[in-house]
């Protein structure tokens, strides 16, 4: 899959570091380095800096300091560089910066360093240490039992959320890679490398201050919303001051009033008071009909929650999607243009299960493919997709019985309908890479089937069963999101060039209960512009139409009790559909003597 493959994260870091070294302005060079060459928003990029680094960057920019590549090894001067995780670093004289630091250049001051700069940076560093120590002292006052409860909760929650990497001063907490120190893909819950496991076995009086601060701040952060809050500080500093400002901002976003600090017993205790208020206000906001979404800065896996100013309605469904919908349900466009999503699917399902064209196992699969294809065309996406369980009747029956079996289903029990857009296919053909097409769609489908497996214990509401104690599962997603520059981290994204993406997860009512995140609509681009709010609103609206289609299918299957299993969208199906294109192109090339 060479045409779509990106250079990968490490190579990107090398490239950006080389670019930064070629700048004249040290301030501009640091910002270029921190933002991965403007692939990361400055807000998130600079959120990784320690307080003293922020002050140093301000001084660099105010003084018009210059890049001095020749002084990169001069530890007695000011310098800047990047860690292997991508975090930019500014070093004061005498700072080594750690074994994995790539020093890019020294900083040359036209008139010498500003008076008092070194002392000011030292004072800010001392203040940050004092802030962390104050949290440790507060936790000590709460006692061992309280601390153990916080650790136990984090040990559970962090096993079932996405990847994170965050900083507390010089310390890093992450569940990613060989340097991970939190439970995740690389580290099991009982590994001695997991800091939380170690803390669970260590008397509170022997905890390092930074560990205590992490436990307190992460607990307050999660309490302010959902477990996915963990990702909102990924790639940045999780310090008490920043966390307080963050939660206060969430309270205002949820139409609340931030209480006076004087009403709290302590600054640390106030964190949890603010968190409780934010969580309750958020629930009230969502109950009023507000729609939240997240923007994902993939370079640091930072995911930020937002609220739409106006509700997403049927009016957000693109006309190109309505054209396809009109061919299926003639009455639908008027309903949708009027703002609603209640498409009357009954005539379509009443027309029978047989497909209208060859290549599909049923009308249900044919229509699903057509809707997913229309979503790609309407949003100028290279690929669109939608996943779900293959046997809805069996799933419904098991859920009705209270069976835990669905949580143990294999990935083969799920499908993902992946549709490459016409322009994307033509681009591959023009590059003589049509043979990559079936590989790409099969790889994407396999990854999405795994997502269905990953979310099912939570979606089926069986995750509390002891048989899932060691099972790798995630909380089912509930918020739509759009991701930028996701093509440099995840192995599949690197191989297939998944640069920008939109995800719209949704559930349906099955066996009498809502099953979150059981289905989704996803869109991706391998090049070009990032998605904007217009495309996200369109995707959410199209997802609502698709949700209605899935829901009507489930209702009919439950009512009729007639077995129906999705057979399409497996590896043989994709190879048969797109492998033929590759074979035809190869034959044409041979005939032309290419």
Walk me through what this model shows:
It is a single chain. A hairpin with a 2-residue loop joins β5 and β6 (171-174). This protein has 594 residues and is an alpha+beta fold. It has 20 helices and 13 strands. It starts with 8 loop residues before the first helix and ends with a helix. α6 packs across α8 (209-223), α8 packs parallel to α10 and α14 packs antiparallel against α19 (533-560). The strands form 3 sheets. The protein has a 7-stranded mixed beta sheet with strand order 8-7-11-12-13-9-10, with helices on both faces. A 4-stranded antiparallel beta sheet has the order 1-4-2-3, covered by helices on one side. The chain is globular, with a radius of gyration of 26 Å.
Structural class, from secondary structure content? alpha+beta
The percent of residues in helical segments reads: 40-55%
The whole-angstrom Rg is 26 Å
Largest sheet: 7 strands, mixed
Shape: globular
Ends apart, CA distance between termini: 20 Å
Give the strand content.
5-15%
Which strands sit side by side, in order, in the main sheet? 8-7-11-12-13-9-10
